[in-house]
Specification:
This protein is an alpha/beta fold and about 250 residues long. The chain contains 11 helices and 8 strands. Helix 1 (about 15-30) packs across helix 11 and helix 10 (about 215-225) packs parallel to helix 11 (about 240-250). The longest helix has 18 residues, at about 180-200. The chain binds phosphoenolpyruvate (PEP). Phosphoenolpyruvate binds near residues 9, 168, 212, 214 and 235.
């Protein structure tokens, strides 16, 4: 049985006060409940240290939303792996579709970021997914295969032990239009089969593959009960403690 992992991507939301309130409310909502899933929150960079201090006495883990692939130096505005680690991060989201489309990240830079994160002991949450146009053209599997192959190029199975994959169809992110459980399961199964071809059958059974794209309390149970969906990467619905905790309960 693979563990279920629910991660909340706060995106560019919540200042310091908002961070304190949301984490405090989450802790209160989760208190006394025996929640079987691993829970990760990914606040903006400026709030990581505060979040880390607030999470010390809880089982909730901390992640960042991005990383740079160099260790240090003249890279104005970027954040290094050691900075994330010293702020208390265990995880880092890499290759989110907003980074790819708005900030021009490529498969190559994403591959470098994954390698850097792993080298520094950070656990990547590696996002892949097709656009609506690609789905309508019938090239979803080609896009997924290409993103996965290029993103993981030159990385061994041993190095990937702590990597989480997140299938996030771009047309479902922040749109309120989630993939149906059948659509999501079909792609998750394809990804798992591809992992087994690229690495090993054993590893393909172990790797956690999250679904992301308009996951909310109302649709979480159906999505998370699919055999190859091992968790969720949640955007909008993680900004309210009660809705995020309902998704965790659904897992
Ligand atoms: C995301 O940002 O990764 C995401 C899935 O967002 P939302 O849940 O709002 O669609």
């Amino acid at each position: 049985m693979r563990r279920k992992v629910i991660a909340g991507n706060w995106k560019m939301n919540n200042d310091l006060n908002g961070t304190v309130s949301l984490i405090s409310e989450m802790k209160k909502e989760m208190q006394g409940k025996n929640l079987p899933a691993e829970v990760i929150v990914c606040p903006p960079f400026t709030n990581l240290e505060t979040a880390s201090a607030l999470l010390k006495d809880s089982s909730i883990k901390l992640g960042a939303q991005n990383i740079y692939f160099e260790e240090s130096g003249a890279f104005t505005g970027e954040i290094s792996p050691d900075m994330l680690k010293s702020a208390g991060c265990e995880f880092v989201i890499i290759g989110h579709s907003e980074r790819r489309t708005i900030f021009g990240e490529t498969d190559l830079s994403i591959n470098k970021k994954i390698k850097t994160a792993i080298r520094h002991g950070l656990k990547p949450i590696f996002c892949i997914g097709e656009t609506l146009e690609e789905r309508e053209k019938g090239v979803t599997f080609n896009v997924i295969e290409s993103q996965l192959r290029k993103g993981l190029e030159g990385i061994t199975e041993t190095e990937l032990q702590n990597l989480i994959l997140a299938y996030e169809p771009v047309w479902a992110i922040g749109t309120g239009k989630n993939a149906t459980p059948e659509q999501a399961q079909e792609v998750h199964k394809f990804i798992r089969t591809l992992i087994s071809k690229l690495f090993s059958a054993n590893f393909s059974h172990q790797i956690v593959i999250q679904y992301g794209g308009s996951v909310k309390a109302e649709n979480a149970k159906e999505l998370l009960s699919q055999p190859d969906i091992d968790g969720a990467l949640v955007g909008g619905a993680c900004l309210k403690a009660d809705s995020f905790v309902k998704i965790i309960e659904a897992a």
